[in-house]
Design a protein that fits this description.
63% of the residues lie in helices and 10% in strands. It contains 22 helices and 13 strands. Helix 1 runs antiparallel to helix 5, helix 13 crosses helix 16 and helix 17 packs antiparallel against helix 18. Keywords: Membrane, Transmembrane, Transmembrane helix.
């Protein structure tokens, strides 16, 4: 490639980087406190004694993530731009580390960096918003991912005493952040410990020390009383296995649906397909990867709605990744296989958790990004092909970031108005708006931990908060015989929504709530709804999946389904007065 073409590609690369960076600043400029932020930011408001007491209670009753939550509390007590700049820098550093891990050719490294930075935003609307665009979400997911990648980078590049010490510190920090990164740190330490062992030689003390540090951090998290509290509802192995199957079905559905990590699935599958075709000459494997990518596109477009399909394609995807990794491992390349194992391990840990949420898909999505980047690096594409791929990813990820930023801009306006209302408050009742769009921020505010007691107490306000939401009005729903169903039907934009609790009362059917999930058993069929979903599962595991006309929403901590979907699913004739 001549110098003129290289210069043009360099200019285009700089423009692409500037475009993504500008959108990132626009997005972060509109980030406001949300959800758990209102719970963590008072930790440091009343001195260090109160701070440590709150951390102790959190460790005893919630989980063992003392590191990330203490750092989060510190950032929440400064101007939000402190967090915003830190978060942008973390994403840039994460992408730079990935580029340096998987691309040895300096001429290609800039393209790999831009690919990594663009790929970061392909994880889907729900997942990105829940992990990136609120402070606690970033410290629970971006910071642990950065620590994990930093540990892997220095673990494979340490050559002197300072490098060994830094690696050990990063190992310890990564292992005490979150449950998934703790397990993955331990997994990486064990694999690299035994892969470094040479015949007729002692196991290197450096790798052994890292493994012991990772094990200590893992035990600190897993053995916390708060973790026991979270998992106390599971009383037997059979019950635990059933719950894992339920969660596997739910997470499979969330991966492939709009707003999930379909973009990451597509990117990694195409990258692996290209690498398999170019370097391994395996047409069947490359064809399988491209077929999986095509299915991800179809499911994200809403063409395919089947729980069994989600499960089958997830299992095929796991198998194809492991197959691809094993074939590369035979040729001396172990990174893809290790990343594929980490992806499967992260998914398994999610399924074993007592909580289901889109943000939990963030770290598996990061594993897919690692796999895709490693595969692209091994494929040794030309600079021209890399440039075309980068251009496509910049445009697609730019649209993703812009959508998030516009939603955040609307929500920030409501947050700012609430702030002014509180500052003008002089007694009596206080009415605050809920965030108007739950597509990316499903928990509307105010609720208990959003503009609730902890937040208002900082302004000396203890009165009851009366909440209302933009475009929210209360209506009465009646059936064909004019029997009153509920007076709690609300309007969100042009759709009417009814709460599951009221609907279950009217149907006289069992109703269950499981962390942002509701279940109703009607005429022998179990319907399982999850917030943000545009389809409903009709059994615990592997059942049918029916498309919904409107997404399931959470408004003021209450899960709701549209009246039109309630009529169709439960054979009702509800009308609104």
């Amino acid at each position: 490639m001549n110098q003129r073409k290289k210069a043009v590609l360099k200019i285009l690369g700089i423009c692409g980087f500037g475009f993504i960076l500008a959108l990132m600043f626009f997005l972060h400029a509109n980030i406001r406190l949300s959800r758990d932020d209102f719970f963590y930011y008072p930790f440091l408001k009343h001195g260090m004694t109160e701070f440590f007491n709150r951390l102790k209670l959190h460790y005893q009753n919630t989980n063992g993530r003392l590191l990330v939550h203490s750092v989060c509390a510190a950032f929440l007590n400064y101007n939000l731009w402190t967090f915003r700049l830190f978060n942008i820098a973390s994403i840039l550093l994460f992408s730079w580390l990935l580029a340096n891990l998987f691309e040895q050719d300096v001429n290609r490294r800039a393209g790999m960096f831009l690919t990594a930075l663009s790929g970061f935003w392909l994880m889907g609307g729900f997942t990105a918003a829940e992990a990136v665009t609120w402070v606690s979400g970033s410290f629970n997911y971006i910071l642990p991912a950065l620590l994990l990648i930093s540990y892997l980078y220095f673990l494979t590049n340490a050559t002197n005493a300072k490098g060994y010490l830094l690696t050990f510190v990063l190992c310890l920090l990564s292992s005490v952040t979150t449950e998934i990164t703790s397990a993955l740190t331990l997994l990486l330490s064990i694999v690299l410990l035994f892969s470094s062992h040479k015949k007729n030689s002692l196991i290197p003390p450096f790798f052994l020390a890292n493994m012991l540090a990772a094990l200590a951090g893992f035990l600190f998290l897993v053995c916390s009383p708060g973790m026991h509290t979270r998992t106390a509802a599971v009383s037997s192995l059979a019950q635990a296995m059933k719950q894992m199957l339920i969660h596997f079905t739910t997470f499979s559905q969330m991966c492939w649906e709009p707003g999930g990590i379909g973009g990451m699935l597509i990117f990694s599958a195409i990258s692996c397909g290209i690498c398999a075709y170019k370097t391994l000459k395996r047409k069947l494997l490359s064809g399988t990867m491209f077929f999986i990518a095509a299915m991800a596109v179809l499911t994200n477009l809403g063409v395919v709605y089947s729980a069994r399909c989600y499960i089958v394609f997830d299992l095929c995807y796991f198998a194809a990744l492991i197959w691809f990794g094993v074939l590369l491992c035979r040729q001396g390349e172990t990174k893809v296989l290790l990343a594929a194992i980490c992806f499967a391990a992260a998914f398994a840990i999610m399924c074993a958790s007592g909580i289901v949420g889109f943000r939990m898909l963030f770290l598996p999505a990061m594993c897919l990004l690692v796999i895709g980047l490693c595969a692209l690096s091994l494929a040794q594409l030309s600079l021209g092909a890399i440039s075309v791929g980068c251009a496509i990813m910049v445009v697609v990820s730019g649209v993703q970031v812009l959508c998030l930023a516009k939603i955040n801009q609307k929500n920030a306006a409501v947050w700012d108005e609430n702030q002014k209302t509180i500052e003008r408050y002089d007694g009596g009742s206080l009415a605050l708006q809920s965030v108007p769009d739950e597509f990316y921020f499903q928990g509307g505010v105010p609720v208990d931990n959003n503009f609730g007691h902890d937040y208002l107490a900082e302004f000396g306000i203890d009165d009851e908060v009366q909440s209302y939401a933009v475009e929210k009005q209360y209506y009465t729903a009646v059936d064909g015989q004019n029997a009153v169903v509920t007076d709690k039907v609300i309007r969100r934009y042009d759709d009417y929504y009814i709460s599951f609790e009221r609907l279950a009362e009217y149907l006289n059917e069992p109703h269950a709530w499981r962390y942002e999930t509701s279940e109703i058993r009607h005429r022998g069929e179990l319907y399982r709804f999850h917030y943000g979903a545009r389809s409903v599962l009709t059994s615990y595991v592997g059942g049918r999946s029916q498309k919904l006309s409107d997404p399931v929403r959470i408004v003021d901590s209450d899960l709701k389904i549209s009246v039109s979907d309630a009529n169709r699913l439960f054979h009702l004739n509800l009308t609104i007065k």
